[in-house]
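Long-time lurker. I teach an intro course on protein structure, and each term I like to show students one example going from raw sequence to a predicted 3D structure in token notation. This year I'd like something fresh instead of my usual example. Would anyone be willing to generate the tokens for the chain below so I can use it in lecture? Attribution to the forum is fine with me.
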Amino acid sequence: MRKLFTWCFKGRVSPTNRSQSKSQGSMGETMEDPSTCNAENFNSERSHGNMNNSRGSVASNIIVNHDFSRGLDSWHPNCCHAFVVSAEPGRNHAVVTNRKEHWQGLEQDISGKVSAGPTYSVSARVGISGPIQSSAVVMATLKLEFHHSPTTFMFIGKSSVSKDKWETLEGKFQLSTLPDRVIFYLEGPSPGIDLLIESIEIACPSMIRSVDTRAGCFAFGDENIILNPKFEDGLNNWSGRGCKIALHDSMGDGKIMPMSGKFFASATERTQSWNGIQQEISGRVQRKLAYEVTALVRIFGNNVSSSDVRATLWVQTPDSREQYIGIANSQATDKDWVQLQGKFLINASPSKVVVYLEGPPPGTDILLNSLVVKHAEKVPPSPPPVIENPAFGVNIVTNSSLYDGTNQWFPLGSCTLSVQMGSPHILPPMARDSLGAHEPLSGRYILVTNRTQTWMGPAQMITDKLQLYLTYQVSAWVRIGSGASGPQNVNVALSVDNQWVNGGQVEINGDTWHEIAGSFRIEKKPDKVMVYVQGPVSGVDMMLAGLQIFPVDRQARFRHLKRQTDKIRKRDVILKFSGSDSSSLVGTFVKVRQTQNSFPIGACVNRTNIDNEDFVDFFVKHFNWSVFGNELKWYWTEPQQGNLNYKDADDILTLCQNNNIEARGHCIFWEVDDAVQSWVKSLSTDDLRTAVQNRLNGLLTRYKGKFKHYDVNNEMLHGSFYQGRLGKDIRANMFKTANQLDPTATLFVNDYHIEDGCDTRSSPEKYIEQILDLQEQGAPVGGIGIQGHIDSPVGPIVCSALDKLGILGLPIWFTELDVSSINEYIRGDDLEVMLREAFAHPAVEGVMLWGFWELFMSRENSHLVNAEGDVNETGRRLLSLKQEWMSRAHGHIDENGQLEFRGFPGSYEVEIVSVSKKVSKTFVVDKGESPLVVSVNL
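-- Reply from a regular --
Happy to contribute to a lecture. Here you go:
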């Protein structure tokens, strides 16, 4: 049985215009355009089919179903008919018939499988059949579609074909820029002549197609896409970016020699930090593929012995948008070669790509010995860590009670340790929340005297007592002696192979005992770990009591949080059924299924992300809120005074609006000095005040009603640029003016390290003090933003901060949540801790992830989706939790015509199943404490 297919494109350009459309390829020629056909238009969405080639295909063939072994799968007749004939076992060919125009033939969409730059070879076995006496010309053609410019056509090759004889058609093509859509097709014989096709191959010479990629032709495995990477061909393919480059076999009187090979290059006469050595790699990189970059670099000259050297990618898209992608940075010196290593991924179809080195101050040369850019190997998923006998809740500090004097303790530095009586007998609250019932503390404490440095204090070695990947909670009572001139920081610290690790901090003001709490985790086997307590200025005594370091039982905490979640998030729902035959409904079976939970779980999006359809698919499917990474910040929307850029923010906002995703406005101002653009810093006081007002007017008037939240002045606990320049009242005035310009938006404060106990500048107490101060000045603070960039989170510590902030009665949001671990399972545990704590706390009204896609996160080892689109264990944990927080119920309608259940707020579908019919209805459950009665009219 033969299947007959017809396919016709919508929106062809007219014949008169086609001759004026120039091909984008360097090896093409202009062709005539086919007339618009009148056949029924089919949906232009294409299925790319199975990308594994069938029998006999070379590995590099980018044509799917090249020999028609799967019928016409992935092929489409262009305004004509087609079918596949099996002439002999295992040998098929396609017949293209009912051709009314010479341009009608068979086509395949090869978008995403070709790139700009490489030369592709085409080989096809073709024939003709029908009322013809001699021969006909068969041609191979590309149709190139662009969003922002006319469609063009590229000639590839042709062959004169005689009737009843197979001929080979060969040709080549090269794309100088990558279109949005590329369609390959065969055409040519006169109307009424059937076109026969036995096989087609399109290959990229000297390259091989990856079995795993979605992008087509690229340098495989260890093949470097950098040309002349070790300068063996001089400086060919290299150029200076705003400076000169030179070739060397040595420098500095022979003191600088290449680390590998015979030569190295220098970027010299640099007058800007962005000047450096570069190479254009257009056409050699593919969108949506991860690339690894490795370089050997050092610096020379200008009396600079050490400087940051960065590898950066400059990308230009077909619509002339420019992007700068940071790849890697390393501290280079004038003494030795150092390795610079990182990864990048391009989301959009690039028309031009340049990789370059930059960074050191002007006058300092950048030296480059070699550069490698290759497709990054896929990193295998990390296995779940094996943790034996974790001994949850057991203190690993020896002689914590001090019954044995100072045994196992030693002074760090020249201070003196002694044991005294008079400390609290109860555990600090956060430790009590983790440990539950616990024997009283001894009341003994270590007194530290003769302190001549801030780092001096009691210490103990704990190397052999730690297990990798366990999260440890730190808890203690601390106090300082008299003589301090102001508040003093006390820190429980760890020295892990001489690297400082923060175990918790507290600010002490006054002669009372304070709780100190924190956490840490070790993920690489250490040689030596020491815990010590430090902090007050020299000359001030310090007291330490009941130091506890114990592994936390996260699963036990999760069980508690599940119960808490059911209590505070769910609502009793009564479905009341009615209808003309409602009396007969008693006993009818009913199924209830939640289709969407209304609790906000959102994610950070950058403009470049939305060029990647895989990113967009995951985003719109799994998140209902968004926040922009940079695109709404002042330094982005007005990098130079008067030069406004709202297009990037508009593009993301349009995506959100089209998918019913709410958006947070982050941020109107940023109080940290380093985040303020140079032109703003250079303004006089009066001009700065005017610029602030213009920023408020411009942003909030443009987007009035479009952002549900605004972070008004970001990180006011950690910066004071605007307050320092314009006075204390400027912060409250920002809130007041924003509220006047857009009364519909909730105005947030937003800061970091609020919830983890590791930064005394941003303790919950100081955050509360700041919020109350703003409110006293009349600032309409409507919400509390906790960023949530956290390491090794411990539930009771996070919950304690939420409890304290909850006293203010304002909604709390985690606005920038991310967690980091080299192990996906541990990272998933961390994420689950934070999401469960948020969802189980009545004051929390939303959570925003600060990204989820690898290479587009502010922290390494924090992603949920790998660069090329694979969801990892951390991502699966998020999806599992979201599924857990979707309610389901079933049962029979009772004698009152009702079905009762308890469920999360959101959208629902109810299905009523009787002998005669099945009826589905939808309803919505809003937040509330009293039972909700929902009428279901049948």
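Some talking points for your students: DSSP finds 14 helices and 49 strands in the chain. Confidence is low (pLDDT under 50) at residues 1-59, 206-216.
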